[in-house]
Amino acid sequence: MGNLIDSAMRDAGAAPSIMLGESYPEIRQGVRSLCAEFPGEYWRVKDRERDYPAEFVAALTEAGYLAALIPETYGGSGLPIGAAVAILEEIHRSGCNGAACHAQMYIMGTVLRHGSTEQKQRYLPGIASGELRLQAFGVTEPNTGSDTTQLRTMAVRDGDTYVVNGQKIWTSRAEYSDLLLLLARTTALEEVKSRRHGLSVFLVDMHKVTGLEIRPIKTMINHATTELFFSDMRIPADSLIGEEGEGFSYILDGMNAERILIGSESIGDTRFFIDRATEYAKEREVFGRPIGQNQGVQFPIARSHAAMEAAHLMVCKAAALFEAGVSCGPEANMAKLLAGDAAWDAADMCMQTFGGFGFAEEYDIERKFRESRLYQIAPISTNMILAYIGQHVLGLPRSY
Ligand SMILES: Cc1cc2nc3c(=O)[nH]c(=O)nc-3n(C[C@H](O)[C@H](O)[C@H](O)COP(=O)(O)OP(=O)(O)OC[C@H]3O[C@@H](n4cnc5c(N)ncnc54)[C@H](O)[C@@H]3O)c2cc1C
Fold first, then answer.
1. How many CA atoms lie within 13 A of 76 on its CB side?
2. How many angstroms separate the alpha carbon of residue 84 from the centre of ligand 1?
């Protein structure tokens, strides 16, 4: 276990601490061993065939890693977010990819924080055991993009049901999930009292509805993402999570966890690129000496290492604040920004270190290069984070 030091206190009474050194070493070791069963060849075939890594997700579920954050009362391990950070970081460092299942870890929080006791009892034990998959999160729409408050998918109350019409895009894993966490409008845009009101969250059992069409989208990476079309999709009224009209704030509540966990995946990716580049730069000999002896090759690797360590500290700080129940919007956003940038810069560095071999599938660099690019865009694009820091941290005028 690493040392514990006090981090800055944001609110009086809260004294979050940051774990230096390797947190959750046993969990990390367990995840590494599991990932060793899914080497590059496994991911290359999945990537080539655009196939969902069902075996990998099943192994993570069976080992209990995907239920790490679910309270023990509902069959999970009841661990804090730092454990999920360790799990996702190790998955990515190993060359695997958590995107096939990571959403469960942060979507589940919305049900946990805002769902009724009855909803939690109905769904969480199944999610913890793997019997029920909660992997799909339907927020983005084709015509509104980053401007979530303008979304158009409408859910209209009709007796003891809601009738949903509209469209979502980029709803990842919908074909491999039983449940969908859906953000839809329950008050027409023209009638809302503020931009943040009038949206509601629903937990939809996709096997029990008609009027839902799922169309896969082919993308640069193997991400099982889809478009959803709702035409008079009728769902029971008790699919509503929390209060009608308050859904946007519920989704925002979950965003800090999402940013921290995506940040941890990017730290894992960065470590993967540094590990691979270092190893290759030591072994590859050109002009009679290892390429890593040249400063032009060595220094970019060293720079990536420094960037990764700095970004990692921000992920740890955000996670510590989150665990202490202290507001952590700036840190969660900066963690995602810095880790995403560290990963993308390291991807470029690693590709350059490998020279032509970086382009060959068998080294896994080009696959990881493509995968790490996503986090400049999703789940929130870099510009939106910069706008958040400009406006909410620095008090600059709102830019959009
Ligand atoms: C592979 C993949 C998986 C995804 N999975 C999911 C999912 O499971 N669920 C889900 O709901 N969504 C998902 N998304 C959607 C993702 O969250 C969005 O793509 C992202 O939020 C950006 O929205 P957009 O693509 O509509 O871009 P837009 O909002 O159209 O923006 C386009 C560009 O313009 C920039 N921009 C826009 N407005 C401004 C401004 N005011 N100032 C500065 N720059 C601006 C953006 O930063 C971006 O670079 C996924 C996307 C991808 C590619």
1. 26
2. 24
Q: Write the single-letter amino acid at 101.
A: C
CATH number for domain 4-133, candidates 2.30.40.10, 1.10.540.10, 3.40.190.10, 3.30.1330.10: 1.10.540.10
**Angle between helix 247-283 and 103-114 (nearest 10):** 160
User: Using alpha carbons only, how large is the chain's radius of gyration in Å?
Assistant: 21
Residue type, 156: V
pTM: 0.95
Taking every pair of Cα atoms in the chain, the longest distance, rounded to a whole number of angstroms, is 79
Banded pLDDT at 17 (limits 50, 70, 90): confident
114-140: pLDDT as tens digits: 999 999 999 999 999 999 999 999 999
Residue 258 tokens, joined? 């999402």
DSSP secondary structure letter of residue 46 = H
pLDDT in tens, 288-332: 999 999 999 999 999 999 999 999 999 999 999 999 999 999 999
Judged by DSSP in three states, 234 sits in: strand
Average pLDDT of the residues of the chain: 95
Distance (Å, whole) CA 227 – CA 275? 36
> How far from 324 is each of 64, 79, 125, 281, CA to CA, in Å?
24, 13, 25, 42
pLDDT above 70 for 4 = no
Q: How far is the CA of 293 from the centre of ligand 1 (A)?
A: 41
- Give residue ranges with CB within 6 A of ligand 1: 137-140, 145-146, 170-172, 219, 223, 225, 374, 377-381, 383-384, 387, 399-400
Nearest to 93 by CA among 273, 289, 310: 273
pLDDT band at 9 (very low <50, low <70, confident <90, very high): very low
The C-alpha atoms of residue 301 and residue 292 are separated, in whole angstroms, by: 9
Topology adopted by domain 249-393? Butyryl-CoA Dehydrogenase, subunit A; domain 3 (1.20.140)
Phi first, then psi: give them for residue 150, nearest 5 degrees.
-95, 5
- The CA-atom distances, in angstroms, between 386 and each of 34, 266, 336, 346, 389 are 36, 18, 11, 21, 5
How far apart are the C-alpha atoms of 364 and 342, rounded to whole Å? Answer: 18
- Catalytic annotation, pick one of 90, 258, 265, 366: 258
**CATH architecture of residue range(s) 135-246:** Beta Barrel (2.40)
